[in-house]
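Pasting two entries for a bug report.
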Amino acid sequence: MASSELIWQCIKGGNSFMRKGINNTYFSAEAGNLAGKHSYKHSGIANKKSVGLTEEGGNILLTKGKVKKSGRSKTVFKKDARRVMKGVSKEVTGYRSDLSDIATRRVAALAKSVRVAKASK
């Protein structure tokens, strides 16, 4: 298996997940990229340890591990938003502490999108 630095050198110039923004900014749509930035730190392909957060059927799904491998661990959070944020923060801090802050923000955004608005009378 090639090193993560070599993989990043190969894919940083261009890959199918790159999206160009305004003012020469680049974003990434790859799985395992929490921030959506095209950088080595956030890359879900190049890093040996990647963290991904998605929403499935009203639940928050946390995936840890290499994106291409089948050895990814998946954790489903079904509680309220505060408990989910606390649980995800604890899981990510133990796995990749540099992404803990970003993961907490991402969970807050996902929980807000899942929340059902109360009907007004």
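Entry 2 (this is the one that rendered wrong in the viewer):
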Amino acid sequence: MSEKRQYRMRERAKSQEETRQRIVEATMHLHEEIGARATTISAIAERAGVQRLTVYRHFSDETAVFRACTSHWLHLNPPPDPAEWAGIADPVARLRTAFERFYAYYARTRRMWLVSHRDVADVPALQQPMAQFAEFVAGVGDGLVFGPPGNRDAILATVRHALVFPTWQSLEDLGLDNPAKLDLVLGWVRGLEG
């Protein structure tokens, strides 16, 4: 194969990858602005500056586009890593650190979580990634439980409830800033210690 042909093939592959990335980013921005439910393939194509057929050349269906969008968004906005607080010996300090990280994360990524929670029941392509994130958060909650054995179930339920975005959003809607939210949810847990 000639060098000129190899060069053209590399350039074509690069151009295709750039087009695919524009489609993914257009989808991500539309999801954040108007939600997955209102995002159409036509709107994605228009935002990406391509034809609808080009979107379908890169992605077999809406679910494939949404999966690529979710993966890209999570790459740009990774959730808090439990390793950040795993080494904290004091269970209350560990819990506070986890809540601080999650609440700061939700504050930064609020728009996407709002529309995703709103649209999840109507958009099958969102249901798996949202369920996976919910499992991740539940697992984080499991790792934060402490206290007397008789109260562990109540503490687990409280920690899991306090870690999810809808709880953060509800407290946000009440006008609480993150420090006030932290004090409140830690008070819930401390009240269960026995």
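Dev reply: Rendering is fixed now. As a check, the viewer should reflect this: The chain has a mean pLDDT of 91.
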